Amino acid sequence: MELLIKLLLLFLTALKTTQGSDSCNEVKHGHGYPYLHEASSFSQAEEEGFDYIIVGGGTSGCPLAATLSRNYSVLVLERGGSPYGNPNISHMQNFHIGLSDTSPSAPSQPFISTDGVINTRARVLGGGTCINAGFYTRASQRYVKTVGWDAKLVNESYPWVEQRIVHWPEVAPWQAALRDGLLEAGVAPFNGYTYNHLYGTKIGGIIFDKDGFRHTAADLLAAGNNDNLKVLLHATVERIIFERRGRRRRPTAVGVEFKDNSGKRHRALLNGGRQSEVILSAGAIGSPQLLQLSGVGPRKELKKLGIPVVIDNLHVGKGMADNPLNSIFMPTKKPVRQSLIQTVGITHPGVFIEASSGFSQSPNSIKCHHGIMSAEIGQLSTIPPGQRSLEAVQKYKREIKKNLPKEAFQGGFILEKISGPLSHGGLRLVNGDVHTPPVVTFNYFSHPEDLQRCVYGVRSIERVVQTKRFADLTVNDAYTMEALLNMSVQANVNLIPKHTNDTASVEQFCRDTVTTIWHYHGGCHIGKVVDGEYRVIGAARLRVVDGSTFNKSPGTNPQATVMMMGRYMGVKILRKRLGRAAGV
Ligand code: FAD
To answer: How confident is the model over 107-119, as pLDDT tens digits?
Structure first.
């Protein structure tokens, strides 16, 4: 009998970890991958030095490491833990629960830009691909040309990623409604299932398989050479180590300093090879932050913080942008099935229409705060402006939200976002400690053209919600646009004070309800911080390969291109060093 009870308990525990967590904050780790090690196991004395040290095992870092490890020794240093065994990462239905986990070691690290928009950074092996909405779609051919990439190699690198981790979605009802609504509203033609960036309406790829199980950039490491690949988890890089070499005494990267989970400092060094390199793939915030912490950045700002200047470069951390997102919540007659992005409408003015649904209906998720994906009615807007803070959101979650009727959470969102915003901001260090998040500003809608495009986007959504397809789904046979805007103002989660004319002026609605779709980029632009080969200008043996190098976010959503870029640069480096012998 006792054995039976034990087996039953074991079964229930297993069920719980595969079906998702029953609290907002549950995280479990576990892995069986030969290249993964805890940072605390690192011993410099035992290591001979590496051909490549990659900082950040994220969206671009993993495919880059896998590719380089075919021929060279590669060390990846990732500040987060393993994604394996964490149901909040693995299961699509836990997307919002993962984002709401704000514990200090959680895979999602929240931050609030000075604009008052709640945002997040990945902190886990696999980076953004472990916490994102999973939509996979390539950049346009024009984008590839503008960046100056080799189109043939780009077209070989995307499929390398796709064969390993990308799937076609089984189109969810809310996504099918958006597809039909977009076509009825004139966002045509229908381009079917495609990864390509084509004007009109399409269904893209996703990194969830048919069981809703997430595949991430961390899975791409399996394509590497285990004998050459070492990945350290919970290894937070604090600075790049430079030596001045050659006649011109050029700053040359020779390794990095990192801390393990227990706070112990280590040094990882490159080997003596003339072409060995440190490559930063720490993401749009992590890479410019680390360059500045290492003394590469605006002299004045670094000196103020007591950071010794290695290379004076005004542009590090500058020119950052985030694609602004505004969304409309639509209550529905019946509960709608959960869905993340599968359908997209691509319009000529560079406004993209997407949707998500059903992320607030389970009794568990009602207790959690999950940003734009929740159908939260009243929230910060019910609180006087001076008192709007993250703590107020938490209080709302604890004391009010759980008592609201379930029907208030029934429905879906239609989102519009603009690509390539002309409004730019930047990043500023607070001190010399890598653990202190930098201050980030995006200046959403400071450029009038961005605001005009947002208005175009909201008007496009209006056309979609007025189609017969949506009228049939929604309560009262379709709300007026004004009622929907009103509801969306109330449901909106940012710290920007709301105005009474939000629904009378679409411009005001755009400004007040702006949120993020987490496509922030820039900070290490080509031609300003890195050259065309992604080498840091003024330094030797140092590159940056990630979204911080983008002037504009690629495609409707960037992850496909960030992963492609990791593979692309890996192959380029191998071919440069080995010629045909590279075999890639
Ligand atoms: P990351 O993937 O974030 O990689 C950076 C890595 O470096 C992280 O793992 C980080 O922990 C590590 N790191 C940083 N600093 C250090 C340090 N000092 N030492 C060691 N390690 C460090 N894109 C899409 O295409 N489709 C979507 O549906 C989509 N939805 C999204 C939803 C969310 C919630 C988020 C956050 C993003 C979404 N995106 C989506 C965007 C996309 O996921 C990101 O643009 C992309 O993953 C960023 O890649 P990256 O390489 O620049 O950074």
So the answer is: 999 899 999 998 9
User: Which contiguous run of DSSP H or E holds residue 441?
Assistant: strand 439-441
Tokens of 511: 């400004």
Contact 575, 153 (CB under 8 A): no
* C-alpha 22, offset from chain centre: 25
Using an 8 Å Cβ cutoff, are 418 and 324 in contact?
A: yes
Residue whose CA is closest, atom 31 of ligand 1? 132
Does the C-beta of 63 come closer than 6 Å to ligand 1?
no
Tokens describing residue 385: 């402006």
- Neighbouring C-alpha atoms within 13 Å toward the C-beta of 199: 6
**Is residue 48 within 8 Å of 112, Cβ to Cβ?**
no
Give yes or no for a cis peptide into 189 (omega within 30° of 0): yes
Q: State whether the beta carbon of 60 lies less than 6 angstroms from ligand 1.
A: yes
For residue 519, indicate whether it is catalytic: yes
Q: Does the CB atom of residue 79 touch ligand 1 within 6 A?
A: yes
Residue pair 146/433 in contact by the 8 Å Cβ criterion: no
Q: Atom 22 of ligand 1 has which residue's CA nearest to it?
A: 56
Which pLDDT band, with edges at 50, 70 and 90, does 405 fall under?
A: low
Q: Output the pLDDT for position 246.
A: 79
Strand partners, 343: 203
Q: Which residues of 13-52 are buried (b: 16+ CB within 10 A; e: fewer)?
A: eeeebeebbeebebbeeebebebbbebbebeeeebebbbb
Reference 270, options 256, 250, 254; nearest CA is 254
Contact 280, 256 (CB under 8 A): no
What residue has token string 């605006």?
A: 298
Residue 127 beta carbon below 6 angstroms from any ligand 1 atom: yes
Distance CA 101, CA 328 (A): 25
Alpha carbons 258 and 238: distance in angstroms, whole number: 5
pLDDT tens, residue by residue, 55-74 = 999 999 999 999 999 999 99
- The contacts of residue 20 (CB under 8 Å, 6+ apart) are 87, 88, 91, 93, 94, 97
- Report how far Cα 10 is from the mean position of its chain's Cα atoms: 35
235 C-alpha to ligand 1 centroid (Å): 17
Tokens standing for residue 461: 């959504």
Instruction: Report yes or no: 112 and 516 within 8 Å, Cβ to Cβ.
Output: no
Check residue 377 and give its pLDDT.
Answer: 35
C-alpha count within 13 angstroms, C-beta hemisphere, residue 77: 31
**pTM of structure:** 0.91
